[in-house]
Design a protein that fits this description.
The structure is a single chain. The protein is an all-alpha fold and about 450 residues long. The N terminus is likely disordered. It is built from 18 helices and no strands.
Length: about 450
């Protein structure tokens, strides 16, 4: 009976994967001609590889690797072809067919290398973790005492007060990111960043710790969730922060999301529907949400990752490691390092004289801007190894311990990964470190 059920499940997965690939192929092939056949063929190959990665492994229905493939499918397979077919000149720059062809060839090589390295490394780390894991599944579990519940509530309450205070206790300003209702206090950049990416996420960590460890008193989880909505309102913060904060909430509160294809479908729903909808709250009072924005978003500046990589390859912008140094030393103030690099998106914009400088830089573009094609290879291999290690550790160790708080950091990374991949690296690294510091602070409090 189990064999029959598994067979039916596998067949359903294959059918859904094929349907998913066909749907992905429509925007890639729409408007193609013989002149662009080579470009279309490369993007079809990339899409096939990504779809395989997305629907592989029933035993691991969600993983960082699946998120990477979803990102690549949307940002490097579908969006570039829609931009090419529609003749989009991103920030007024006309890219030639040869520019697209070269960038797509590099992108195809990248996704092939990612898959090759990841699958090899996954087997290696799985074996290593299985050999070294002889401890009890309940090792490291802690109980959430009444005292610790009170501490978590007080922490979240303090964060809520901070969020309300910087908005002059104006609820509309709190829940609307920008536009006519903005009534926020002007804070120094450093204070704003620490408050947004270290202080406010503490409310999320408090809630998830209570959910995973279990609470002694009814109403504690509901109260912590309410305070999370005040501390980090989904409509009042950057969209990547919404994914990083609320995907973990869904993972903890909706167990079904951790089974089957639910996770993949939620991510697709987020990219296709939720993100365009949240953009409405960013420009509240200035624009209205339309269904057409679901498709038009693929040709606007939010999907500039491929074009930014194409830009650095086209202009051969290489800094010989300076951008990497700036990212790793993001915490070093410019008063000490006056020549500290700016983020790669800003750097390319200023170098090439673009009219807009708040731009992304995909992870593989960061590789090129640091060390050229050699950097693309090194960044790709290193990142594939890192994802394989994190995925293997979670599925071989963490998932087997029901009260392991390390699951929180993994869920957060699932939500952050698209932002990290889109870049730029300096911002992504700084924000990730700040959010993870908030996690380790709360973890230390509840486990000591």
């Amino acid at each position: 009976m189990n064999a029959l059920i598994n067979s039916l499940t596998n067949n359903a997965r294959v059918i859904i994967a094929v349907a998913f690939f066909i749907l992905s192929s429509i925007p890639i092939m729409a408007g193609c001609s013989w002149d662009s056949a080579a470009l279309v063929a490369m993007h079809e190959c990339m899409a096939a590889i990504c779809v395989y990665g997305i629907f592989s492994s029933l035993k691991r229905p969600y993983s960082l690797f699946k998120v990477l493939n979803l990102f690549y499918l949307f940002f490097f397979c579908i969006a570039p072809m829609m931009q090419y077919h529609q003749g989009v000149c991103m920030l007024g720059t006309h890219f030639t067919y040869k520019n697209y062809l070269l960038t797509s060839a590099v992108s195809l090589a990248v996704i092939v290398l990612i898959h090759a390295v990841y699958y090899w490394a996954q087997r290696y780390f799985d074996k290593k973790h299985s050999e070294n894991t002889h401890s009890d599944e309940h090792k490291g579990e802690v109980c959430l005492t009444t005292r610790k519940e009170v501490i978590l509530i007080l922490l979240s309450a303090a964060v809520c007060f901070y969020a309300l205070y910087i908005n002059h206790f104006d609820v509309m300003s709190l829940f609307i990111r920008d536009g006519e209702t903005n009534n926020r206090i002007e804070l120094p950049t450093l204070v704003f960043l620490v408050g947004s990416y270290f202080v406010r996420p503490i409310s999320l960590m408090a809630l998830l710790a209570a959910v995973i460890l279990g609470v002694k008193h009814r109403g504690v989880k509901a109260l912590l969730f309410l305070m999370l909505l005040i501390a980090i309102p989904p409509t009042g913060v950057a969209r990547f922060l919404v994914a990083a904060m609320y995907l973990p909430v869904l993972m903890c509160f909706v167990p079904r999301l951790r089974r089957g294809l639910s996770f993949v479908l939620v991510i697709c729903l987020g990219v296709m529907i939720v993100f365009p909808l949240l953009n409405y709250f960013r420009f509240y009072g200035q624009r209205t949400f339309e269904i057409s924005s679901i498709y038009s978003q693929f040709v606007d500046i939010n999907f500039d990752a491929y074009s930014m990589m194409m830009r650095v390859i086209k202009d051969d912008i290489v800094t010989n490691g300076m951008q990497l140094a700036g990212a790793l030393l993001f915490w070093l103030p410019r008063s000490i390092w006056a020549a500290k690099p700016i983020s790669s998106g800003y750097y390319v914009a200023h170098t090439t004289g673009l009219s807009w400088d708040d731009l992304s830089m995909p992870f593989w573009g960061e590789g090129y801007i640091n060390f050229g094609y050699f950097g693309v290879i090194i960044f790709t291999v290193a990142f594939a190894l890192l994802l394989a290690k994190l995925d293997s550790k979670y599925w071989c160790i963490t998932v087997k311990r029901p009260k392991d708080l390390n699951a929180i950091s993994y869920y957060i990374m699932l939500g952050l990964l698209m932002f990290i991949l889109r870049g730029s690296m300096m911002s992504a690294l700084a924000y990730t470190v700040a959010i993870m510091t908030a996690f380790y602070l709360v973890k230390t409090i509840v486990t000591r």
